[in-house]
Amino acid sequence: MYALTADHLRKVYRQKGGGEVVAIDDLTFAVEPGEIVAIVGRTGCGKSTFLRIMLGLEGPSAGRLLIDEHEPYASFARLKGVIGVIFQEDRLLPWRSALDNVTIGLEILGVGKDERVEQAREWLDKLGLSKFEHAFPGELSGGMRQRVALARAFTTSPKILLADEAFGHLDEVTATQLRQDYLNLVHENRCTSLFVTHQLEEALQVGDRTLVFGRPATVLVDLNCRNLSAAEFPRVKREIQAAIGTEDGISASASAAAPGA
Q1: Average pLDDT in the 132-160 region?
Q2: What is the DSSP string of 184-213?
Q3: Would you state the pLDDT for residue 248?
Q4: CATH number of 1-69+195-261: 3.40.50.360, 1.50.10.20, 3.30.70.1150, 3.40.50.300?
Q5: Per-residue pLDDT tens for 212-227?
Q6: What's residue 245's pLDDT?
Q7: What is the pTM of this model?
Q8: What one-character DSSP code corresponds to residue 173?
Q9: CA within 20 to 30 Å of 127's CA: 34, 166, 182, 244, which one?
Q10: Helices marked H in 55-198 — which ranges?
């Protein structure tokens, strides 16, 4: 049983003038339980559309997506709490403390107050924020705010974690540490993870596998990264660039791409 399966997924948007835009075209891949899969692609390749389908916010035009053997856009309630999400923006509620922000997911799941506060404190402690549980988002640095967002995502014990450009807005020192903390927690909690990024090198560092999306979204490259050393990155990046071409591909320095594609 796969944790996630995209089966000939296709998404077409109809335009007012009568034309259509294909965002996803015959997207097919599967993710095993506990696997970390990095997804990378140029701006406008359909990554955001795929994430909306994964989160059950809209359905495909053809094909299907299965998470835990259920279609999220058809079984939204059944999958509540199964997926944890970490966005590029921390999306913390400014009027709630760090502790109260972390408890939000547990509140939605109907967990009692004492239990959700206890769990939230445990996760803030794991992420080095035990002394800041009463601080409000405006009183925290960008890295600390993203740590609160990490705690919020993990505290519901999700089976699948989705990181959407989660560390791309941070300085490299902070991003490197948070990226490692994220990977450690994913492994410790045996989560499956989809890690979306514009940066090819980050994808190669993070993923057990790296999927390179074309435009519209389809898998152009599916690379096993488990035994890939840092010294091999330049060669692999050149091979990926050669395989997908410059027009529909992604540059080796993909960090220059605009976020949110």
Answers
A1: 94
A2: HHHHHTT-EEEEEES-HHHHHHH-SEEEEE
A3: 44
A4: 3.40.50.300
A5: 988 888 898 899 988 8
A6: 66
A7: 0.85
A8: H
A9: 34
A10: 98-102, 104-108, 113-126, 142-154, 172-188
